[in-house]
Amino acid sequence: MKATATILTIAAASMTASASVTSYTETFESGANNWVSGAFTPTTWNATGSVDNSAYISSQLDLNSAGPFGLTLLRGQDDQNASGDAFVGNYLAGGITTVEFDFRHNAGVDLDIALRVATSANFPAFAVESSSATVSGEWTHLTFDLFFGNPLLTIEGAPTPAAFNAVMEAVGNLQISAFRPDGLDSELIADFDLDNVAITPAPSGLALLGLGCLGVSRRRRA
Length: 222
Fold this sequence. Notes:
six-stranded antiparallel sheet
C-alpha cells in the first residue's frame, strides 16, 4: 500500500508540475521578444511587411544543412524566455489544441514545414507536419492540431498516449522547421519569416486526454 501511495503521489506531482496555459498570440509588435533562429542566433525584427503589414521576425539559414528530420528555422524556447514564457506550461490543463502562425520563405521552391513541441529539456517531444507545402514568396497561415490521433504527428520515442501527454503537460519549446527540398545537393540560403504565433484551446475548453489512435505518420524526408 505504501509503495502504491508513493507512485500515486509522484504521478500527481508530475501532473501539476507545470502551470496551466491560456490562449496567447505573439504578434512581435514590440520586438522579437527573445525568439531566436534555429542556430540560436538573434532573429531580425521587421517593423512592417507581414501579412497584415505589421511587424514580424526573420531568420536566414542554408536548407542544404537540413538533417533527416529537417532544419530548425525559428525557436520559441523556455531557456530564452521567448514571449516571456507565455507559451510554457501545461497544455492539457489549459485545453490547448492548436498552434498556428503566419509563415513565409523565399527559397524559390515549395517547402514542407513542421512544428516540434518539446519540454524545456527538449525531450520528450513530438512533431506535427503541415498538411500542405508552403509556396515561396507567399505568406501562408499554418495550423497544427495537437491531438494523439493526428496522422501528421510523430512522437519521439514510444508512440503512446502517455508519451504524448508527457509533452503536453510540460511544454517548454516550440520549434519551426523545414525539410530539405527533394534533389537539393548544394547551398540554398533563404529567409524565413514568422508572425502571429498563437496557441488556442478547443471550443469546448476541454483538455486533451490523448484519445484516439496514432495514425501512420508521413515519411520524414531526408
